[in-house]
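Submission sheet (multi-component)
Chains listed below:
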Amino acid sequence: MSAQLIDPQEILERRILVIDDEEANVLLLRNILQREGYTDVHCLTQSSKALQSYIDLQPHLVLLDLMMPEVDGFQLLEAFSRHDAADEFRPVLVLTADTTIQARRKALSLGAKDFVAKPFDVIEVGLRISNLLETGLLYERLRTSNAAY
Amino acid sequence: MSKGSTRFWTDRPLAFKGLVVVALPLAVLLGALVSLYLASSAETRAEDDVRRAFAIQRDVYQIQALLAEAEAGVRGYALTREDRFLAPYHTAEEDLPATLARLDEAIEDETVRPRFVELLQVTQAKRDGLEATIALVQASDSFGQNRIETALTTNRLALDAVRQEIENIQELEGIVLDRRRALVDDVRTRFLTLTAVSALIGLLGSFAAVYLFSTGIVRRVSKLEGDAELLARGERLETPPEEADELGRLAQGLARASALLRKREDDLRASEERFRLVIEQVRDYGIFALDPQGIVTSWNLGAERIKGWRTEEILGEHFSKFYPADTRDFLPEEMLERARVEGTAEDEGWRERKDGTRFWANVVITALRAENGELQGFAKVTRDMSERRRSEEDLRLAREEAVAANLAKSEFLSRTSHELRTPLNAILGFGQLLEIDEEDFTQPHRDAIHQIAKAGRHLLALINDLLNISSIEAGAEEVDIEAVNIADLLEEVRDLVDPVVRAARLSFEIDLPPSGTIAQADKRRTTQVILNLVSNAAKYNSTGSFVRLGAQDSGENVTIFVEDDGPGVDPANRPRLFTAFDRLGQQKHSQNEGTGLGLALSKSLVESMGGDLGYAPLSPGARFSFTLSRTSASRNVEQAAE
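Outcome: structure written.
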């Protein structure tokens, strides 16, 4: 049904921001995203620059690591939600090696839309990414059509 | 009054006494009245007697007069023969019977009575004589003059006899009259005397009543008044005599009250003395008194022990001496002020001993006030809390350390998890990508890629198990104990393990307990343990034909077991069965993958639920079993408290 609503090409053109301090993981994610066919992918290993990039790029999806030196993922989650307008839908997918229930609960309560434990399954992560982007697009359409009335 | 009669009198009730005091004069008065009445009626009777005597004399004279006139008339008739001279005779004949009858009734005196009988006879004789004379005169005409003369003479003689008798009677009646007159005088005298005596007795009776009232009531009431005053002053009362009336009982009541008060006073004094001695001897508390200005006025053994000053050294000193220099200027005054206003002031802080050393003290100051509210001083109780403060401090530190250690443990687990998984993510991720692209590679490369992926997954399993054990042992994960229906649980697990057992070409058998079998367990952990044990059995049963899962209700516990008919565990290896990373040489057999942590993890899981995991050999085969409590055991409570 969604295939009819949303053109797959439209999903692949969405802007994605990857934030992870581990070079190898960034590479892995870039690789996965390129293979899927995403065209607008931005990667970042320095979390201190993340908020600025977030503001500059206005990404449609953020892939976020939690445990990072300097500014960690929880702080970024808080900063993002402070920055965003209330009706903005800009989902964050948390990818973390911290599998404790406390980390999971905290991330979701701070506004993360999904949570995947590392090491993750490559195919599963690809599916979750496209799902979140599709939801974002549907949300935008709904908002536009509401505004038209 | 004699002693016995006094006693009798005082023992009567007040109502009786009142009755006696009122009735006695009344009775005396009544007696006097009765005697007066009797005296007056005696006088009346005596006067009646006198009057009767006079009447007798008069009647006697009348008889004489009537007879004399009758004779004179008869004489005249005899001389003249004229009937008119007979009138007096007829009058006499007519009146005499009545007069004589009156006399007969009136004369009672014994001496006069015979004379009266005589008088009756002579009177009758006279009347007969007169009648005969009249008859003679009527019969004789002129011839019988002599006989008439004779009759007349006889008549005169008879009249003389009558006269003589009357004189006799008169004389006797005179005597009677005199006697009676004397009696009247006598009665009158006695009456006067009696009246005087009655008045006197009445007066005496009143005096007696007043005396009785005084001895029986007034005097004793005023004594009671005095006793009550003594009682009010708190003085001891003398034991009163045993008197049975109300006043006596009141006096005894007062005496008892006095005795009771005295006993209470004595008891109080004794208890105060004991209390003082106790306070003096108390060693663990410094108890001492301050005057309103804060000067020490008493000191006990405990105070000496805690603060170091001896009684004679500290009496008269101001209590601010006990405070260290940094609080001495304000805290003592502040404490007294608080005690003055609020009644009591409590403080915990440093105090100084005589030798200058400090101790941690708990101090309570209580204001002592008289009944009128006037401040009399303060009582101060000091306790040396140094020991307790130290142990509290130790306890707090230990607790903080434990909390920090726990936090550190959790932090360590979280960090380790992250540190180990992060590199694995890249390895496994790229490995997976390479596997997806494997057609691009030659066979040797493909093998290498598979080896990398396989080794990576093994490493991940290892890390997961290890972190699992650690987090269970650290208590980092919550144990969710609830009542679990074991039959239902085994049914659910069957669907998970059946494929595993079949994959190992073995048959899966299940031995369900009665459907209502309940155990206290964490459902997820129990499932994990069963999965582990069944996987192991399937993995290592290379020679047998089945794996059996079952549960038994053994009273207090439910036992869940997994059996197989494989080679079992080599007896030499049994001690190391539950040791982590020990694969008991299985690593040589490449077909049996494993981390060597499965049984160690299962054991930790079972123990976290308060159960026990054990092994028993079968012939052939192996039996692993673990117990779960049927009732909420104390272990659960302990865990909840942690």
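Remark: The longest strand of chain B covers residues 358-369.
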